[in-house]
């Protein structure tokens, strides 16, 4: 059985739906917004024993919970440190003590973005507080001598109309004849959320251990992806203007090319990520274009 810490998050909610449908979900947690069937859990003061469940049945804990807005982590550094580092370490140690394997979601922000297509063993040099916090937990797990999995991800999107994720938001803005300012110099590994869900499922089935990049193997800049969407969906309205990631007033910097190489995960699992072409074909159906 599986528990999802942060089941009310975007990725967490999809994981919960999937594993619940397979009768593999023991429980899930929320923090800010109550969700029916989920239990309250605060990473600032984590005590997993307060959760109402039979821990003897739980083998895996998928950790989606975090303070994840990059600029907010910088502006509220003490708070983000208490959640993303201190609380996270406490939670993981509790899981270890109960022989529950943690599956921790990390981020491409552990890299400085100077080269792109990072493999798992590349040197981590985060340029922002959020990335530093993720690196701290990665290192904590890597030196734990315990079973764990790090699922390192990049930019996640959905394909449901109105889901407020990147691709659907761009489609809706273009159809509303709006102007998009998209960075030509920020390259990411844009990945469909359901591929993340399926990746976690196969990771559990194969009981993978260690660090894995879990992402689409097709790196794209924001600008190139936006133009691809407009072209492939034949949207005649709206404008896409190129810019630099440095044109935005971020409180904490972003790396230019933090795309990830998922070859290790693909090689060990045989998993096939959904191509961007397939995702755009689905968007055509969703928006009847």
SSE order and pairing:
Layout: E1 2-5, H1 10-21, E2 25-30, E3 39-40, E4 60-63, H2 70-75, H3 77-97, E5 101-107, H4 129-142, E6 149-153, E7 156-157, H5 166-175, E8 179-183, E9 187-188, E10 191-192, H6 193-205, E11 210-213, E12 220-221, H7 222-232, E13 239-243, H8 263-269, H9 276-286
Parallel strand pairs: 1-2, 1-4, 2-3, 4-5, 5-6, 6-11, 7-10, 8-13
Antiparallel strand pairs: 9-12
Overview of the structural elements:
This protein is of the alpha/beta class and 289 residues long. The protein folds into two domains: 2-156 and 191-213, Rossmann fold (3-Layer(aba) Sandwich), CATH 3.40.50.720; 159-188 and 218-260 and 275-286, UDP-galactose 4-epimerase, domain 1 (Alpha-Beta Complex). The chain has nine helices and 13 strands. The strands form four sheets. It has a seven-stranded parallel beta sheet with strand order 3-2-1-4-5-6-11, with helices on both faces. β1, α1 and β2 (25-30) form a beta-alpha-beta unit. The protein is globular, with a radius of gyration of 19 Å. The termini are far apart. The mean pLDDT is 96.
């Amino acid at each position: 059985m599986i528990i999802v810490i942060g089941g009310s998050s975007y990725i967490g909610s999809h994981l919960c739906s999937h594993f619940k449908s397979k009768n593999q979900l023991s429980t899930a947690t929320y923090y800010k917004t109550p969700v029916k069937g989920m239990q309250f859990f605060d990473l600032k003061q984590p005590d997993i024993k307060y959760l109402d469940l039979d821990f003897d049945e739980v083998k895996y804990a998928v950790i989606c919970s975090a303070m994840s807005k990059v600029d907010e982590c910088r502006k509220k550094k003490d708070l983000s440190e208490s959640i993303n580092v201190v609380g996270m370490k406490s939670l993981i140690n509790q899981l270890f003590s109960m022989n529950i394997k943690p599956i921790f979601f990390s981020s491409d922000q552990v890299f400085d973005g100077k080269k792109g297509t990072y493999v798992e063993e590349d040197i981590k040099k985060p340029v922002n507080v959020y990335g530093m916090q993720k690196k701290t937990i990665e290192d904590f797990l890597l030196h734990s001598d315990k079973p764990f999995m790090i699922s390192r991800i990049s930019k996640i999107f959905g394909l449901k109309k109105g889901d407020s994720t990147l691709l659907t938001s761009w489609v809706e803005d273009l159809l509303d004849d709006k102007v998009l300012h998209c960075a030509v110099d920020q390259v990411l590994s844009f990945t469909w959320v359901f591929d993340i869900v399926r990746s976690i499922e196969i990771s559990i089935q194969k009981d993978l251990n260690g660090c894995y990049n879990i992402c689409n193997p097709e790196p794209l800049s924001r600008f190139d992806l936006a133009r691809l969407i407009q072209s492939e969906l034949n949207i005649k309205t709206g404008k896409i203007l190129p810019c630099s990631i440095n044109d935005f007033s971020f409180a904490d910097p972003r790396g230019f090319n933090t795309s990830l190489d998922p070859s290790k995960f693909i090689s060990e699992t045989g998993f096939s990520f959904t191509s961007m072409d397939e995702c755009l074909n689905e968007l055509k159906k969703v928006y009847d274009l």
